[in-house]
Amino acid sequence: MEIASTPIQGCFVVQPQLFRDDRGLFFESYHAKRFQQATGIQVDFVQDNISVSKKGVLRGLHYQKGAAAQAKLVNVLKGEVLDVVVDLRKDSASFGRYFGIRLSETNRKSLFVPKDMAHGFLALSEEVIFSYKCDAFYDATSEGGIIYNDPTINIDWDYPEEDLIISEKDLKLPTFKEVFDDISFGNGL
Ligand SMILES: Cc1cn([C@H]2C[C@H](O)[C@@H](COP(=O)(O)OP(=O)(O)O[C@H]3O[C@H](C)C(=O)[C@H](O)[C@H]3O)O2)c(=O)[nH]c1=O
């Protein structure tokens, strides 16, 4: 397993060792001890999620607030995505900045997303099976989000706007400024 840091503190790219032979492929998709040795992070995942998306689906940008905040280890079982993380930690040097990376069944990379990040992805292949571990349970009452095309964060999704498939719920998400400037949103997280 190789771990690479990103411009967002605490967010790491995980490249597992791939064992290919004439049968196919094997790799350890997660190893708690090796991950902790490489990152210094001790994380206890409690929930695994899988979502299936067709090309052009954009899920996000989502996060859970407060005690329900989730760290995630995300990866792609099938297809390819542009995965995006936004730093929502006011005390962070990368507050309001995003990091994007292509995760795919080809590169087999995972991304460790620390708590208090907004997260989303764009499905780039005909079918995407997205799999991720969370260190806190789903809590609908703690869900928050930021609109995918927020002008402050200014994510380059590099995809035709007219071909995006976004849920009605996600199309109504607030902007970054509304989340952090408008106390009606509980002053952010
Ligand atoms: C996230 C979640 C959802 N649900 C239910 C709630 C809805 O009835 C249905 C679909 O949920 P949603 O539209 O929020 O699914 P996504 O848009 O894929 O949400 C995810 O999108 C981005 C990529 C994330 O990082 C989050 O993990 C998560 O918010 O599954 C559950 O029962 N448990 C869960 O943990």
UniProtKB/TrEMBL annotation:
<comment type="function">
    <text>Catalyzes the epimerization of the C3' and C5'positions of dTDP-6-deoxy-D-xylo-4-hexulose, forming dTDP-6-deoxy-L-lyxo-4-hexulose.</text>
</comment>
<feature type="active site" description="Proton acceptor">
    <location>
        <position position="62"/>
    </location>
</feature>
<dbReference type="GO" id="GO:0000271">
    <property type="term" value="P:polysaccharide biosynthetic process"/>
</dbReference>
<dbReference type="InterPro" id="IPR011051">
    <property type="entry name" value="RmlC_Cupin_sf"/>
</dbReference>
<feature type="active site" description="Proton donor">
    <location>
        <position position="132"/>
    </location>
</feature>
<comment type="subunit">
    <text>Homodimer.</text>
</comment>
<protein>
    <recommendedName>
        <fullName>dTDP-4-dehydrorhamnose 3,5-epimerase</fullName>
        <ecNumber>5.1.3.13</ecNumber>
    </recommendedName>
</protein>
<comment type="pathway">
    <text>Carbohydrate biosynthesis; dTDP-L-rhamnose biosynthesis.</text>
</comment>
<dbReference type="InterPro" id="IPR014710">
    <property type="entry name" value="RmlC-like_jellyroll"/>
</dbReference>
<dbReference type="InterPro" id="IPR000888">
    <property type="entry name" value="RmlC-like"/>
</dbReference>
<keyword id="KW-0413">Isomerase</keyword>
<feature type="site" description="Participates in a stacking interaction with the thymidine ring of dTDP-4-oxo-6-deoxyglucose">
    <location>
        <position position="138"/>
    </location>
</feature>
<dbReference type="GO" id="GO:0005829">
    <property type="term" value="C:cytosol"/>
</dbReference>
<dbReference type="Pfam" id="PF00908">
    <property type="entry name" value="dTDP_sugar_isom"/>
</dbReference>
<comment type="similarity">
    <text>Belongs to the dTDP-4-dehydrorhamnose 3,5-epimerase family.</text>
</comment>
<dbReference type="GO" id="GO:0008830">
    <property type="term" value="F:dTDP-4-dehydrorhamnose 3,5-epimerase activity"/>
</dbReference>
<dbReference type="GO" id="GO:0019305">
    <property type="term" value="P:dTDP-rhamnose biosynthetic process"/>
</dbReference>
